[in-house]
Amino acid sequence: MDRSQLRAVPGSVDGDLVARCVAGDRGAQRRLFENEKRRVHATLFRILGPNQSLDDLVQDVFLSVFRSLGAFRGESSLSTWVDRCAVHAALAHIRGRRGRQHLELVPESLASNDPSAERRALAREATRHLYAVLEGLPSKQRTAFALSAIDGRAVGEIAELMGATAVATKARIWRARLHVEKRAKSDPVLAEYLVDAKAGASAPRGARS
Q1: Taking 60 as the threshold, does the pLDDT of residue 99 lie above it?
Q2: How many domains are there within the chain?
Q3: 39-76: pLDDT as tens digits
Q4: Domain range holding 168?
Q5: What DSSP state is assigned to residue 206?
Q6: Looking at residue 134, which CATH number applies to its domain?
Q7: Same-domain check for residues 144 and 189
């Protein structure tokens, strides 16, 4: 492949790194993996919740990234390209496990007289309730909602990652939110979680990770 084809943006660091990865440079591939793996893991976690398959899914995402890099032209950032692969992997995982239990409980090993430990335990329980509710949603509604309400992404970004229109994305988020809020009416733990989430909605995404 002509390396110049990958320099869609003059002086693009992304284009240079992609060209080296496509050429089989293992050092460049390791650099890309190290640069992006934590965010990929976080994105998958926010969509899927506690799940023993996360580490395997991270590997699957990067296999997809490296297979598709030859088509990268710099219309979006490399990080967006990687995020899109992560979202597609999450969607495929949700569709492939319908009807199977997958949520993993985090073992409790915290001192009962530690107030901060109690708060963390309550947060874990609330998170478990939320993801149990999300299990009942269609995969695209669940993913759009998670990227919006949990990951804090804008509608336009979510639409780009999912290959959808902004109108369709807004509708999916709205329907998912109605579903979650309806379930919260009979689930005090989930209801409190939603109140806390609204209170922290103005915080940067990194501060809520």
Answers
A1: no
A2: 2
A3: 999 999 999 988 888 999 999 999 999 999 988 888 88
A4: 115-208
A5: G
A6: 1.10.10.10
A7: yes
Q: Minimum mean pLDDT among 12-16, 44-48, 166-170: which range? A: 12-16
Report the sign of the C-alpha dihedral through residues 67, 69, 75, 76, in that order: positive
pLDDT on residue 196: 66
pTM to 2 decimals? 0.77
Identify the three-state secondary structure at position 147: helix
CA nearest neighbour of 117 among 139, 204, 125, 6: 125
**In the prediction, which pLDDT does 189 show?**
85
CB 190 within 8 A of CB 129: yes
What is the chain's percent helix, strand, coil content, to nearest 5?
70, 0, 30
Task: Work out whether the CA dihedral 198, 200, 201, 207 comes out positive or negative.
Answer: negative
pLDDT over threshold 90, residue 117 = no
Cα 132 off chain centre by: 17
Residue at 104 is within a domain: no
- Please indicate, yes or no, whether residues 91 and 143 belong to a single structural domain of this protein: no
149 φ, ψ to 5°? -80, -30
